[in-house]
Fold:
Amino acid sequence: MIEQAAAALRAGRLVAFPTETVYGLGADALDEDAVRRIFAAKGRPADNPLIVHIGDVSDLDALVTHVTPLARRLAARHWPGPLTLVLEAAPAVPAVTRGGLATVAVRMPDHPVALELLRTADIPVAAPSANRSGRPSPTTAAHVRADLGDAVAVVVDGGPCGLGVESTVVDARGEVPVVLREGMITREQLGLADDGTPEPDGLAGSPGLRYRHYAPTCRVEIAAPGTATSTARRLADDGSRVGIVSLEAAPEGVTGIARVTGAESLAAHLYAALRAAEAAGVDVLVIEAVEEHGVGRAVMDRVRRAAGNGWAETDTGT
Ligand code: TXA
Ligand code: MG
Structure:
């Protein structure tokens, strides 16, 4: 299976594969036509750059003009792992992979199947999350098939992804990391302040955040910690079909979609829960908020996007 998938990648075809965060839709990062197929399959806007996945830390050198001391340090500490480093791109990286930017985003995933595939193919692999643009990211092979079907040559099934929310994207060109997208590596792990309030510093630097994301076909309602049960009951009493993702068991008359124990657990279950709520045919999914610290920052960012807060219906995401 890995041999076949690696051969498909080398032949310029699309291969979906598991990572520790979500499934990726991969293609040869240095082959323009192959990368264009990713954008076409996802319906992704061309100005939204891709993350290039590598199987060894030393593969970074050929993709960028200069590995800064900060990037060296972060890679040594967090790779393989859910941290993506943005650096000045080497000329070998096609503009289509970079979404036209002068920089390229690179990460080494911490998943045995992903690493084996990358090392067998022995090429850098551009891979966004393997969902249709705007849909929740896929955390199982079945999610990938539901969204992309025949557009993918091979889907490598590695079971459910362990972390469930995407990598942290960091601009590593300077002396301190600048967070471009919140993710599974926390600000604290990067040596940055985590004051518990979402702050949009640097967010203009990550093109993907301009677009609507993670949108299920049902409505999503965010409940403050401890209020999910009462919120769900009230909505059910008003006549809606209600699903719930919460710490407590679902109350009478409400469909239990996922039971979570905190931020890490919500991260692991969130995207599958959004899809399960659609499948259960609920009108509204109540999600119990977690505190905006550590992984909770990234998770609540995704929950708010799923709820469509501040996003026009016509926007399309990654
Ligand atoms: O965990 C992950 O990061 C997953 C797995 C598959 O590795 N990938 C993923 O890719 O989430 P995607 O394409 O869904 O999100 C990549 C994000 C987008 O917000 C994109 O705009 C940003 O990274 N990005 C990519 N290249 C960039 C660059 N050169 N500068 C700034 N942001 C960049
Ligand atoms: Mg995505």
